[in-house]
Write a structure and sequence with these properties.
binds norvaline; Rossmann fold; 2 domains; five-stranded parallel beta sheet; binds phosphoric acid mono(formamide)ester
């Protein structure tokens, strides 16, 4: 019997499975509008408890291009927002729809949704991980460089304890590249996560050393969704952990500067550096569409 596939985290994927997904992306990117529609006749729901531009639009468009009808459910508009348990929501939707894409706070909620709904479920960002983003970033690096990420050096700058670097940690451990996380001590990933992942992960407060000879400089917002109350403190604590032109000069010549977006100019990245690398950064945003179609195709076939 075929087991149902979900994409709940990169922690749950092997390197081989990541490669199976990544290998499908060019077919969707190069044959947009001409590929198969494996979701024809299906209805998928997006259930979002947090804001989104890229993830929402790329999934809505991508699922339609795969043949599905799509419902966007703002968690605040459905009974989930009034306290109905996720497992009951899952049991109801699992009887009506064919797949779900969920953006929320607790990782356990997407795990529970997958378990109780019995339908293919995608993590579209939790506090713990952002797996669709990092698969897209790896595709974008390899597309732009024409080389595998294996053996390369990715330097993450900023809040090293949030969802985006956590997914980078699992990708590095499974795909065999070096990840350096430059962040103040209090914003470095938990030791337990690093132990569990293994791989070649270096955490340091020394930003200049972390950037030296890197193939990629990567950043994310200093204040993730749900952390707004800590906003002022975070801006102070992270003020030294910004990508600017001086930092780019430390990296390998031709290094890529990447950002998952949204970007806050003058905070985690300067205006000048963001604009100098806008081709890569907005290609990365576009690739969400193609990569997520490959993810869903891999899940349902
Ligand atoms: N990068 C990303 O997930 O963007 P959104 O929050 O706009 O979806
Ligand atoms: N770490 C950010 C990612 C946004 C795409 C957040 O969780 O808000």
């Amino acid at each position: 019997m075929r087991t149902m596939k979900h994409l709940l985290s990169l922690e749950a994927l092997s390197g081989t499975e990541m490669r199976e997904i990544l290998n499908r992306v060019p077919a969707f990117k190069n044959h947009r509008g001409r590929h198969d529609r494996p979701l024809a006749g299906q209805t998928w729901a997006l259930i979002f408890s947090k804001s989104s531009t890229r993830t929402r639009v790329s999934f809505e468009v991508g699922l339609r291009e795969l043949g599905a009808e799509v419902l966007f459910l703002n968690a605040g508009d459905i009974q989930l927002g009034r306290g109905e348990p996720i497992r009951d929501t899952a049991r109801v939707l699992g009887r009506m729809i064919h797949g779900a894409v969920i953006r929320t706070f607790a990782q356990q909620d997407v795990e529970d949704f997958a378990r109780f709904s019995g339908i293919p479920t995608v993590n579209a960002l939790t506090d713990a991980e952002h797996p669709c983003q990092i698969l897209t970033d790896i595709f974008t690096f390899e597309e732009q460089r024409g080389q595998s990420i294996e053996g390369k050096v990715v330097t993450f700058v900023g809040d090293g304890a949030c969802n985006v670097p956590a997914s980078w940690i699992w990708a590095a451990a499974r795909l065999g590249f070096e990840l350096r996380i430059a962040a103040p001590k209090a914003y470095q990933p938990e030791a337990e996560l690093l132990r569990r992942a293994g791989g070649s992960i270096v955490c340091t407060e020394d930003l200049d050393a972390a950037a030296t000879d890197a193939d990629v400089l990567y950043t994310d917002v200093w204040v993730s969704m749900g952390k707004e109350a800590e906003g002022a403190q975070r801006l102070k604590d992270l003020a030294g952990y910004r990508i600017n032109e001086a930092l780019v000069r430390r990296a390998k010549p031709g290094a890529l500067v990447m950002h998952c977006l949204p970007a806050y100019r003058g905070k985690e990245i300067t205006e000048e550096t963001l604009e100098a690398h806008a081709d890569t950064i907005f290609r990365e945003a576009e690739n969400r569409l193609h990569t997520q179609k490959a993810i869903v195709d891999w899940m349902v076939r």
